[in-house]
Write a structure and sequence with these properties.
This protein has a two-stranded parallel sheet with strand order 1-2. The longest helix is centred in the middle third of the chain and has 30 residues. By secondary structure, it is mostly helical. Helices cover 50% and strands 9% of the residues. Strand 1, helix 2 and strand 2 form a beta-alpha-beta unit. The chain has a domain of 53 residues. It is built from two helices and two strands.
Length: 90
């Protein structure tokens, strides 16, 4: 298990995979979160940061950490998103 909002967990995840399997063929970015908030909520920026960190930053970090291994194996990246990106919930 890993908390992808923590750099050390993301690095450990990739390092452990390489140590155990010797290579990386595919990266699937499937972690995500969301909140139902109103723009006037006092904690809107805190909630935004949480969602951004898992939905965007963690994806970029996992790709960054995985690219050297994926290039060697001619691997692939699969990014999975939510239907909420197309059809927002109000």
């Amino acid at each position: 298990m890993a908390d992808l909002t923590k750099q050390e967990d993301a690095k450990r995840l990739v390092d452990t995979t390489i140590k155990q399997y010797g290579k990386l063929d595919v990266l699937v970015n499937n972690a995500g979160s969301g909140v139902l908030s109103y723009i006037k909520d006092d904690k809107i920026l805190e909630e935004f940061d949480k969602v951004f960190n898992i939905d965007v930053r963690a994806v970029v970090e996992m790709i960054h950490l995985s690219i050297p291994y994926l290039e060697k194996s001619k691997g692939t990246i699969i990014n999975i998103s939510s239907v909420a990106g197309i059809t927002p919930v109000f």
